[in-house]
Design a protein that fits this description.
This protein is an alpha/beta fold. Helix content is about 50%, strand content about 10%.
């Protein structure tokens, strides 16, 4: 093939690739390689297609060949880095990104990718500098804005994070995942009201869901109210993750005579928990390589009656699959007890504490209130006994993700330390950027920085032992803890929580109320401080409470897996009967 013909063929294949016509682009690249087997650009982009379609082995072989042929090509190094990253070979991926940046100091994508890997290693200052540089090099490039937003959110810098997300959405209004990052983070902000959340979710849906409504098709599922139902669970978190821990009891206790279970797993790095879950469903589908449309087709082909979203707007969600309405009944549960904004999702699961009767909640979906608790807790698989309090000063603690530690929360904690002068504060804060915010808040409140202590990332066993250093756990506000609250109670540490205007701010309310500790749920910031201060001063009462907490938890609705499964199944059945009777057509 003459060089001019090769150039023309490559230009056409590249155009098709950019337009998303991957099959046509692949044919074009392969035709070029038949004529010129050492055509590095075709090898490189054929590898990119393999990466996009989930064939990581082929992608690695192709792009490695391209790098050998073009060691000076920054794009080849960057693409190789992305493949290695997907394969879990982060050290090698890091070197590839570093080489790409060195080869082309104006390569915005390589700066962004390198920043992402450094952020995962908690090298936040370096990552932030790389994101900022990527934005400077290409102000129209959305990904570094959203990655910088993630970094700022994790540091609790919510206003700056939200500004980054909004800019990313402006630049790439077609990417629903970037927009989902904004929606999730708004739940962390204490000034964001239920009506604000409703409006923001409606805007997301108008942009991403409404265009898909014409693709919805009638369902051929037999309208038989009492028949055995096919239930599909969709999640990228069927692995060592809080979602999986709360899902385990339900899958274990499901009535297999009444329900056939399907799991649609987006997990790219399965682990022992993945294997455990796989054994507790009837059909397992690995769907990480399927786009939203193909996943919807797979759900339809499986004849799913009730499809359950376990992600909402958290990472790697499949809301645009649900937007296509592949199952007649669709429900959202577990990731966060808010709304999705998707009109094709019929119900959201909640309970009477997260959403007290009479509160509308500003949700797109109808609310199914479970009679017990929203969560069913599965304790850590280590057999750790409740902690014995170590010697030391009275200690308040928070081991939640640091993103939940808002300025409002820090102000309450500063008041609490002022109220209890001999107490200290123990906070999970992985990096100096996190710890610096806490120290700054104490300084500004006229308190000694030394009254704050920190723990970083820990193994599960070490994390559980840390509760032996805490007298009273403090729930952050407005996004309260779920897993961490349960873990604290399991390890014998009481939790004080502040119930707010949103369901996510009332997580502590349902967990504490279900274990008979509603008295530890505050209704105002002042009461939160009073409750925590009084509890830690009552050393005898606190010691007695610690001794009984695990038993309270074990005998409560929070750990009654058979009851939870029956309640959940009854909700599924009622939703199914409603569809059979024709009241769920949307």
């Amino acid at each position: 093939m003459p060089k001019q013909s090769v150039d023309q063929a490559f230009a056409l294949a590249l155009e098709q690739h950019r337009a998303g016509r991957l099959a046509e682009a692949e044919r074009g690249y392969r035709e070029i390689l038949r004529a010129q087997p050492a055509h590095a650009d075709s090898l490189n982009l054929l590898g990119v297609i393999a990466l996009q379609t989930g064939n990581l082995s082929a992608a690695l072989t192709l792009v490695e060949r391209a790098v050998v042929l073009r060691p000076d090509a920054a794009a080849c190094r960057n693409n190789l880095g992305q493949i290695l990253e997907r394969l879990g070979r982060d050290d090698e991926a890091l070197r590839c990104y570093e080489a790409a940046v060195e080869l082309d100091t104006r390569y915005a994508e390589a700066h962004n990718n390198l920043g992402f890997l450094l952020a995962r290693r908690d090298r936040l200052a370096e990552a932030d500098a790389l994101y900022t540089k990527a934005i400077e090099l290409d102000p129209s490039y959305a990904e570094p804005y959203t990655n910088r937003g993630n970094l700022l959110k994790d540091c609790g810098e919510l206003d700056a994070a939200i500004a980054c997300y909004r800019r990313a959405v402006e630049l790439r209004p077609d990417l629903s995942a970037l927009h989902s990052n904004l929606l999730l983070t708004l739940h962390y902000h204490p000034d964001c009201s239920p009506s604000d959340l409703e409006r923001e979710h409606a805007a997301w849906a108008a942009r991403h869901v409404a265009p898909l409504a014409p693709t919805r098709q009638p369902h051929a599922n037999a309208r038989e109210p009492d028949r055995k139902l096919r239930i599909g669970y969709v999640s990228a978190d069927l692995r060592e993750h809080p979602v999986a821990r709360f899902l385990l009891p339900l899958l274990r206790e499901h009535d297999r005579q009444q329900f056939e279970l399907f799991a649609y797993s987006d997990v790219t790095k399965p682990d022992a928990v993945t294997d455990y879950l796989r054994k507790r469903v009837d059909q397992w589908r690995d769907v990480a390589t399927l786009d939203d449309e193909k996943l919807a087709e797979a759900v339809r082909a499986d004849g799913i009656d009730v499809l359950v979203d376990l992600a909402a707007h958290s990472g790697h969600n499949r809301l645009l699959t649900f937007a296509r309405k592949p199952a007649p009944v669709q429900i959202t549960y577990l990731a966060y007890c808010s709304t999705t904004g998707v009109d094709a999702i019929d119900y959201r699961v909640t309970d009477g504490f997260l959403d007290p009767p009479g509160e509308t909640g500003h949700y797109t979906e109808a609310s199914i209130r479970l009679p017990g608790c929203y969560w069913c807790y599965s304790p850590p698989p280590l057999g750790s006994p409740p902690t014995e309090r170590r010697a030391g000063p009275p200690t308040f603690g928070c081991l939640n993700a640091f993103a939940k530690v808002t300025d409002f929360t820090l102000a309450l904690w500063a008041q609490l330390l002022r109220r209890v002068p001999d107490a200290r504060l123990l906070v999970y804060a992985r990096t100096e950027a996190h710890r610096g915010r806490v120290r700054r808040a104490l300084r500004e409140a006229g308190l000694a920085e030394s009254r704050a202590a920190f723990v970083g990332y820990q193994s599960l066993a070490s994390y559980l032992v840390t509760y032996s250093e805490i007298d009273v756990a403090l729930d952050p506000h407005p996004y309260g803890g779920g897993t961490t609250t349960c873990d604290a109670l399991w390890m014998g540490v009481p939790v004080v929580s502040l119930a707010g205007r949103t369901a996510v701010s009332r997580a502590g309310s349902t967990l504490l109320s279900n274990v008979g500790l509603e008295r530890l749920v505050a209704r105002s910031g002042e009461q939160y401080v009073d409750l925590a201060a009084d509890l830690i001063r009552d050393t005898a009462g606190l010691a007695e409470l610690r001794r009984e907490l695990r038993a309270r938890l074990e005998t409560s609705a929070v750990m009654d897996a058979p009851r939870f499964a029956r309640d959940f199944e009854a909700a599924l059945r009622r939703a199914w009967v409603a569809w059979c009777e024709g009241s769920l057509e949307r």
